[in-house]
Write a structure and sequence with these properties.
Oligomer: single chain
Structural class: alpha+beta
Bound molecules: pyridoxal-5'-phosphate
Radius of gyration: 19 Å
Distance between the termini: 27 Å
Number of helices: 8
Largest sheet: 9 strands, mixed
Shape: globular
Number of strands: 17
Length: 305
């Protein structure tokens, strides 16, 4: 169960958690056209809280809305300020933040003729998405029989709610078989991403991730590429197959929810030594040092409350 906080921001007002409701004929609820973000706020070593890459997340929310042709009735600054205001009102030191812009009550046909765009932001405490154990020891992954959608079928660069039907199907399928997370292939059969995470593999000390063609442009993915390059690791964006992944030395998922979660097994084949490898561990360590405010070099990624 989601851990309740005190307030939720709805269209400019802070409302009580239990009163943050919408009408049952909310257009987005019926047809899946809403855009959202997932952001994390961490408690730094100095006791202050900091939101990780807030600007990039808000920019992407607006990009998603642009792709969906939804006009958000607030400016980016207003959304950024609303997030900070919400975290302060809830007294949350460390949390997950979920802004969502949706088509509200109005017309009921597919064409949203008279459905104003509304915005809500919630925040709550949320630990490791794929488990603490997963972050430390790695998870077991299975390629799903559901493929990631074709690029002209859904818009892979947008976090649009309806897209996640595909992700949920894939996730339920593999969880029912006893795995931790699903890996989806693209329509050409190449590796794309997890149900809500980008994927990286390491072979002969080279870090490789799928190109942006069929995947979401992850902010954690971008952060990892920058961290790796700053460490002198070669990073390649290129297509790879599931069997190339089977023979990788290391592999891991990245995402705001999943953070950096090592993959120890894919389709019952052990990856490398079956535990987080040295490059994964090194990147993971720097990533957590950054979000906890220990790395001065990446200070610009943190918005302190
Ligand atoms: C949100 C998401 C990710 C991860 O993106 P981050 O910006 O790192 O949180 C990856 N894939 C999909 C499908 C997602 O929805």
């Amino acid at each position: 169960m989601v851990e309740k906080a005190k307030k939720i921001w709805m269209d400019g007002k802070l409302v009580n958690w239990d009163e943050a409701n919408v009408h049952i004929l909310t257009h987005s609820l019926h047809y899946g056209m809403a855009v959202f973000e997932g952001i994390r706020c961490y408690r730094c070593d100095d006791g202050r809280s900091a939101v990780f890459r807030l600007k990039e997340h808000t920019d992407r929310l607006f990009d998603s809305a642009h792709i969906a042709q939804m006009e958000i009735p607030f400016s980016k600054d207003e959304i950024n300020n609303a997030i900070i205001e919400l975290l302060k009102a809830n007294d949350l030191k460390e949390c997950y933040i979920r802004p969502i812009a949706f088509l509200s009550y109005g017309s009921m046909g597919l064409f949203p003729k008279e459905n104003p765009v509304k915005v809500a932001i919630a925040a709550w405490q949320w630990g490791a998405y794929l488990g603490e154990e997963g972050i430390k020891k790695g998870i077991r992954v299975k390629v799903s029989s559901f493929t990631r959608f074709h690029v002209n079928n859904m818009m892979t660069k947008a976090k649009i709610t309806g897209h996640y039907v595909n992700s949920i199907m894939a996730k339920k399928e593999v969880v029912a078989m006893g795995y931790d997370e699903a890996l989806l292939l693209d329509t050409d059969g190449y590796v794309s991403e997890g149900s809500g995470e980008n994927i990286f593999m390491v072979k002969n000390s080279i870090l490789k991730t799928t190109p942006l063609t069929s995947v979401l442009n992850g902010i954690t993915r971008d952060s990892v590429m920058r961290i790796a390059r700053d460490k002198g690791i070669t990073v390649v964006e290129g297509r790879f197959t599931r069997d190339e992944l089977y023979t990788a030395d290391e592999a891991f998922f990245t995402g705001t929810a999943a953070e950096i979660t090592p993959i120890r097994e894919v389709d019952n084949r052990q990856i490398g030594k079956g535990r987080p490898g040295p490059i994964t561990e090194a990147i993971q360590k720097i990533f957590f040092d950054i979000v906890l405010g220990r790395e001065k070099k990446y200070q610009e990624w943190l918005t302190c409350l």
